[in-house]
Design a protein that fits this description.
By secondary structure, the protein is an alpha/beta fold. It contains 13 helices and eight strands. Helix 3 (29-38) packs across helix 13 (295-308). The structure holds dihydroflavine-adenine dinucleotide (FDA). Dihydroflavine-adenine dinucleotide (FDA) binds next to strand 4, strand 7 and helix 12.
């Protein structure tokens, strides 16, 4: 495994869990300054403004109201309200081409599968009514079984629901075969701190697993969201999909604030590109994953620290 992915990434994610570090990031101008790069803002209005900017560059969007691991149903229900408001706003702005992205631990999965389902169901119904797709993010490996269980239920209720699969997880190659035929699947490498026994160890292995997942998903007729900024992966997908003229069921997806140059370039060349736009006040865990993905981002963090002191 490369030094950055094998050593630095887990180290950053571990340190980031420390309450002192979290306080430094969330309670100071420093944290907010760094978060600004990766998070569109704290309100739905901020997210919609970012979505309009993305639309001006011919990219569509996926909105994610930030939040995860809520511990009470009261919090889960508040998250549901945020999503219902998001869906209503997206329905009122059809020119934006919005997909809704949710995390199940944000909707009560830590309380129970049933609680989570009760929270999610009205979100799915509202999105389906508004003709919007809902994507379920994949969180750390301890949630995969429960996420897939809920995804299957959700997909039975509405074929507009899709799910993310992580190529770093050894199990994903088998999980992919359990998905309903043709469903929407987002392929990602994986962003969480995982024990070594459940993941591929090296970048090369994770990348190869990604390519295999893509090939299988293409052959199985899935609608595929290629969610990566990796130029080699993107070039490979372009060649494969160009050859079969398959762009009606494949799109590129990238994160807000990451490789915007590539987003704009691909869109200008006519490829479908969607930007994942996170917003809300609970940005800290999301930010730590973005910092951990790329050690250079830490220099960005520390240079801001110096400037804001
Ligand atoms: P890789 O890490 O190999 O990076 C390739 C290149 O991209 C880098 O060299 C750099 O140039 C650029 N890059 C990548 N990350 C960067 C960053 N943070 N800052 C600056 N440059 C960066 N994960 C998950 O576990 N569950 C999920 O549901 C999702 N959902 C999701 C949706 C979308 C739309 C995207 C794009 C990503 C996710 N992810 C995710 C995150 C994903 O698992 C992964 O951690 C990141 O995309 C980074 O990996 P890359 O595939 O970009 O490749």
């Amino acid at each position: 495994m490369g030094f950055s992915t094998g050593v630095v990434r887990p180290a950053i994610l571990r340190v980031a869990h420390h309450p002192w570090i979290e306080r430094l990031a969330t309670g100071t101008r420093l944290g907010h300054a760094v978060a600004d790069r990766f998070v569109a803002g704290e309100t739905l209005a901020d997210a919609l403004a970012a979505a309009r900017e993305a639309a001006a560059a011919d990219t569509s969007v996926m909105l994610n109201h930030l939040g995860e691991n809520v511990t009470t149903m009261q919090e889960a229900l508040a998250e549901r309200e945020a999503y219902l408001a998001e869906i209503a706003a997206a329905a009122a702005a059809p020119e934006l081409d919005v997909v809704v992205s949710v995390k199940l631990t944000q909707l009560g999965l830590d309380t129970s599968v049933e609680d989570c389902w009760r929270t999610l169901e009205p979100v799915i119904d509202a999105a389906t009514e508004a003709e919007l797709d809902v994507m379920i993010d994949m969180e750390d490996h301890t949630y995969v079984d429960r996420t897939l269980e809920i995804f299957h239920r959700a997909h039975e209720r509405s074929s507009r629901v899709g799910v993310a699969m992580q190529s770093y997880l050894l199990r994903s190659s088998e999980d992919l075969f359990t998905l309903p035929a043709g469903c929407r699947v987002r392929l990602v490498k994986g962003a969480y701190l995982e024990p070594p026994e459940v993941v591929w160890r090296g970048k090369r292995e994770v990348d190869r697993a990604y390519t295999r997942l893509f090939t299988t998903a293409l052959e199985r007729g899935h609608r595929i969201d290629v969610a990566t900024h990796d130029p080699a992966m993107i070039a490979g997908v372009r060649a494969r999909v160009d050859a079969i003229d398959g762009w009606s069921r494949v799109e590129f997806q990238m994160l807000y604030g990451v490789r915007r140059d590539l987003q704009v370039q691909l869109a200008a060349q006519g490829y479908p590109v969607r930007v994942y736009i996170p917003y809300g006040t609970e940005w800290y865990p999301y930010l730590t994953r973005r910092l951990a993905e790329r050690p250079a981002n830490l220099w960005f963090f520390f240079s801001n620290l110096v400037r804001t002191r």
